[in-house]
Amino acid sequence: MGQKVQGTEDLLGGYMREWEHMLDVAREVFSAYGFDAVETPALEQVDTFVHGIGESTDVVRKEMFRVVSGALLGDLLAAGTESRLKARQRLALRPEGTAGFVRAAVENNLVPQGAAPMKAWYAGPMFRGERPQKGRLRQFHQVGVEVLGASDPALDAELIIMLVEFFVKLGFPAESLSLRINSMGDAACRPRYRASVRQFILDHADEMCDDCRERAELNPLRAFDCKNPACRAVMEGAPLVTDNLCEDCGAHYAQVKAYLDEAGIAYAEDPTLVRGLDYYTRTVFEVDVEEAGVGAIGGGGRYDGLVELEGGKPTPGIGFAVGFERISLALKALGRTLETPPAPCAFVACTPDARGAAFSATRLLRAAGIRTEQDYQGRSLKGQFKLADKLGARAVVVLGPDEVAAGGATVRDMQTHEQVLVPLDQLAAAVSSKL
Ligand code: AMP
Prior knowledge:
CATH architecture of the largest domain: 2-Layer Sandwich
Strand order of the largest sheet: 1-5-6-11-10-9-7-8
Low-confidence stretches: none
Helix content: 25-40%
Shape: elongated
Structural class: alpha+beta
Number of strands: 16
Number of helices: 16
Bound molecules: adenosine monophosphate
CATH superfamily of the largest domain: Bira Bifunctional Protein, Domain 2
């Protein structure tokens, strides 16, 4: 018997309905804010992620699933190294949605230049080769939004407000959500800040782990996320990005906070929130449900340099993504669920001699948009009623010799057990009224 890959999950039954419900809520909330749905491939060139996410990030260095087509595998093994392959042959399963979306916008000439911003939302599987554990999968599902073409801090605030609204509509009590925000600076102030953190780590190198010593050279800000208690203690004294913002970034961040305050959104400033990807600039944010203990359920930020890194004209951008599996876990931890009941259904039952009439009645109900089931295994009428019950049918349509002779069908209400004989042209309406 085959087994699923460790760190992947099958979306079946009620779990699938949770995912579908999340998509419905996403469509409802995001379209009110002017977002259109998009879908980009799960398979992209490695370079799309290297350019945007950054070569030195954990996601690119350690977690990205590299993909080689069957025909290329031999060449790759013969070449001994992936770097001998052409860029278009070096593929990866997307670890996140933003880089691929920006690649698509640039490639299709959709990056707005002075026109109204482009707003898009997407949903689908993401892949990260992490060590599987609760809330940490190797294939998981995200819903995300992206906006290209505006740097107005009102937009940053609006996206954060929309994210909170989305979580509340999914069933999280507003007070269970803990929102942290920060500003990461921009091309003018971040390099200087990064250099000062690097120097700080080098000055404390003997108190820190090997990983952090390596981070000092590759990606010093990641040291803020180190789990090692000694490193955490050292990093408490590290210079903070919010003390090192340039004037423009400081003013932008102040405006974002002013808009959030005005909207009555509760947040905590966390100057150590650095997020794992290189493309972030200025505003970053993350939402946790502390009671649930599953880690962040969503996060995002501004990426004003990313369009350029993906080969387009300099264009500001901002977005966020939320993780379906963690949202499901977090809601369950709060005693709630994303699950919605299955769609109400009708069942068509018949005696053997009315099988043809039942087949037609089933088609008629389905054509009217009613979810309709029937028996395919030659059950007795009693057996068919049992099956209808098991499937949760609210109405059973019965066809026997009397109904066929009368040119109608009996509709039985499964709750009240009332039965009426109706002509076929009134059948759909009679069944609908029971659902
Ligand atoms: P990130 O881009 O890492 O901030 O991811 C955005 C959201 O996706 C997170 O807040 C999580 O909800 C979810 N997520 C990220 N990585 C994983 C993973 N390995 N397994 C499950 N969910 C994840």
